[in-house]
């Protein structure tokens, strides 16, 4: 059950992250530029991790 909950959290953050990036791109505060670039990098890292997890999951499938 915990795996399902963690997978849901991981995907919810992955789906919501572009909205945060869009919000940060429109802000005019002092640190919003740095937060925008850090968020873009973190989103890219999470995309790579999600792709690796799905790839590893398909390795365990013997027959469809």
Map the helices and strands.
Elements: H1 2-26, H2 32-59
Helix pairs in contact: 1-2
Describe the protein.
- The protein is mainly alpha-helical and 64 residues long.
- The chain has a domain at 13-25 and 35-58.
- Helix content is 83%, strand content 0%.
- It contains two helices and no strands.
- The chain has helices at 2-26, 32-59.
- Helix 1 (2-26) packs antiparallel against helix 2 (32-59).
- The longest helix is centred in the C-terminal third of the chain and has 28 residues, at 32-59.
- It is elongated, with a radius of gyration of 16 Å.
What's this entry about, in short?
The protein has 64 residues and is mostly helical. It has helices at residues 2-26, 32-59. It has a domain at 13-25 and 35-58.
Notable characteristics:
64 residues, 2 helices
Shape: elongated
How much β-strand is present in the residues? under 5%
* Number of beta-strand segments: 0
Summed up, the helix count is: 2
Alpha-carbon Rg, integer: 16 Å
Largest sheet: none
Mean pLDDT: 88
């Amino acid at each position: 059950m915990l795996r399902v909950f963690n997978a849901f959290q991981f995907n919810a953050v992955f789906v919501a992250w572009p909205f945060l990036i869009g919000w940060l791109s429109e802000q005019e505060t002092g640190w919003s530029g740095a937060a925008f670039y850090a968020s873009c990098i973190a989103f890219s890292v999470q995309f790579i991790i999600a792709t690796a997890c799905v790839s590893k999951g398909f390795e365990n499938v013997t027959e469809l």
